[in-house]
Amino acid sequence: MKQAIVRSKLFVPGARPELFAKALASEADAISIDLEDAVPESRKAEARAVVTEFLRSPTASGHGKTIIVRVNGLGTPHFDADIEACAWPQIDIVNLPKPECADDVRIAADALERRERERGIERPIGILANIESPRGLRYAGDIAAAHPRVVGLQLGFGDLLEPLGIDRAHVAAIRQLQLMVRLAAGEAGLPAFDSAFGNVKDPDGYRQEAEDARRLGYMGKTCIHPSQIALANQVFRPSDDEIAHALRVAAAWNAGREGGAGALLVDGRMIDIPFAKRAEAVVAWARRLGLVTDQAAASSKTGFQR
User: Fold this and answer.
1) Using a CB cutoff of 8 Å and minimum separation of 24, what contacts does 210-215 make?
2) Residue 11 DSSP code
3) Rounded to whole angstroms, how far apart are CA atoms 278 and 286?
């Protein structure tokens, strides 16, 4: 499935329809309407009805945003009703909380396929799988590779850390978990997305955690408040220097390949196949964000991207 650019994903409670249009008007790359933790048990049915009404309205089309709905987990009495409520052509991704094995993802995929078939939905709805339990973390690679619908893994620190008494501010623990999930996603050739940061009054903390995730290869981070959107968008983009270097690497690699070189120097650094692949990926990422022209991106292709 085509992977969307999601540097920033803004959470919106499913029972707050007055916020949906505001979220669509924001600078977030995606909005994530939440039917899970942000909706109390007594309002689950109401939230489902509101989400269905929104997804079937003209408002949900033509805005250029990725629309995600976080459903309740498979082990809850709400999962089937949530899928029924949100599986419409306007949705791009279902955010699946707490999968603990590949079979959980396959069950969710089957549920989506049934609704798509019933409703004549031609474009498959993706699955963003949350890694937020010890077992889910242990099987993260299997979860990522469980089904073609999986578009990425997302860390969920609240559910993962709080029951274990692990300090959310323990930087070493956070970075280790970020790396583990990034490697699991990478094994399946998928992106990873970082967790929410609960203290909206600490923009420096949000930025630091986002920058750590970015250095580990993450593609974006959750926003629980509009004030976090600009921070995520700034961090999760290739810098001008990165883009310029990637273009030089790709150009040199293409020239060297024609001359039979297997490795070469660019800006004083040795470049071989892994670095050429990375350069092409950076340019492709920049092109999708509108930071380089299509012509420049086309001239940088090294033959690795598919």
Assistant:
1) 210/235, 210/236, 211/235, 212/171, 212/174, 212/175, 212/178, 213/178
2) E
3) 12
Instruction: Give alpha helix (H) positions in 67-139.
Output: 79-86, 102-119, 134-138
Domain presence at residue 3: no
Global pTM reads: 0.91
CB 222 within 8 A of CB 193: yes
Q: How many CA atoms lie within 13 A of 169 on its CB side?
A: 3
Give me the domain span that covers residue 69: 8-235
Give the CA diameter of the chain: 68
Q: In the structure encoding, which two tokens stand for residue 95, read together? A: 């955010």
pLDDT confidence tier of residue 110, bands split at 50, 70 and 90: very high
Q: Are 159 and 274 part of one and the same domain?
A: no
Name the domain boundary from 184, 219, 235.
235
